[in-house]
Amino acid sequence: MKLKFRQDIDSSAVEYFLDLARQERQRKQAQAKLEKLLQAGVDSEVESVTADY
User: Fold this and answer.
1) Which of 2, 9, 29, 42 gives a 20 to 30 Å CA spacing to 19?
2) What is the pTM (predicted TM-score) of this model?
3) Positive/negative CA dihedral, 28, 29, 31, 36
4) What is the distance between the alpha carbons of residues 25 and 17, in angstroms, rounded to a whole number?
5) What pLDDT, in 10s, does the model give residues 9-38?
6) Which pLDDT belongs to residue 40?
7) Residue 53: CA count within 13 A, CB half-sphere
8) What is the pLDDT of residue 42?
9) Which residues make Cβ contacts (< 8 Å) with residue 53, sequence separation at least 6?
């Protein structure tokens, strides 16, 4: 029974760290997407703002 409990704890820890790694990967992907969109905005043509805009 003690071994089963230990395996459950180890399994939970592994799942926890895998989830953290997944979240970090998603965060990095979102950050890269944001940076790409910001750079596209910086690189875009300047548009004059008028009353008709």
Assistant:
1) 2
2) 0.64
3) positive
4) 12
5) 778 888 999 999 999 999 999 999 999 999
6) 96
7) 5
8) 93
9) 47
Amino acid at 7: Q
Q: How many whole angstroms separate alpha carbon 29 and alpha carbon 37?
A: 12
Distance CA(12)–CA(18), nearest Å, equals 10
- Which two tokens mark 28? 């990095």
Radius of gyration of the chain (CA): 23
**What is the structure's pLDDT at 2?**
62
User: Which tokens go with 23?
Assistant: 């979240």
- Helix H or strand E segment including 12: helix 2-43
Residue 26: its pLDDT value, please?
98
